[in-house]
């Protein structure tokens, strides 16, 4: 008999919780990262989103069990493989959802609404939206956007329109890349495991990936140009006095090359068919990990290494 606790952990997909780190975007970019009160709120919001995303994944696995059995990888999922009984999966999903909503209700009405909306949208996605070409990509992207803005709502933070454009572009880029990688699976196995994929052509998804990849780095570049924080570190003030070219309110722009490299690397993985699970790449691909860590380190250093205030 299968080990139920192990299968319950597997179906909750804790590896996918890495995507919920997007909730920390608002607290980082508003300069509140080291505020204990704000950090505690975002941390518990992160826990709530972990619970609600796991609940949604279980619902999806229950509804997709038949199709998953045809997939070369998904056939090993707990429900599809028969290692976790469907009644148990339903109970676990319900308990996780209730726990998430209970926790969210203590973090503010807007955050509660976002968590509840995320669950409803994911259930609708599992019931049929994923079968609709283009709509499926938009729903996946919406999930990333909701994570970022849930983190902003819980601390009542303002995010600029340029950052919103960046989040939307990156979300669409990741979603399109996921579908492009799934299309590779069809070509390699001759099995159609997702109905919406029958409406996509490889060239179309290639154009989506290219378009949203370009939009992602360009929107980030615009964000850094218009929203870079003024710094008080002596080295930057000194450089600004030497030449206006090194003006300190352009400081965030030094992260642009790192962002471009990260997007180029992820695109190469997409066309190799390795981006079906973005969360795995963020934890396994060395070049991608390095670019993300370097980018985050630079952002934190620029924002918190002597910042007086935002423009």
Automatic annotation (TrEMBL):
Biological process annotations from GO: glycolipid biosynthetic process
Keywords: Membrane, Transmembrane, Transmembrane helix
Primary location group: membrane
Keyword Ribonucleoprotein recorded: no
Xref: Gene3D superfamilies: UbiA prenyltransferase (1.10.357.140)
UniProt entry tagged with the keyword Transmembrane helix: yes
GO cellular component: plasma membrane
Transmembrane segments: 21-37, 43-63, 84-104, 110-127, 134-155, 161-177, 204-226, 287-307
Cell location: Membrane
InterPro entries in alphabetical order: Prenyltransferase, UbiA_prenyltransferase, UbiA_sf
UniProt membrane topology term: Multi-pass membrane protein
Single GO molecular function: transferase activity, transferring alkyl or aryl (other than methyl) groups
NCBIfam families: PRK12324.1-4 (NF008978)
Protein's name in the database: Phosphoribose diphosphate--decaprenyl-phosphate phosphoribosyltransferase
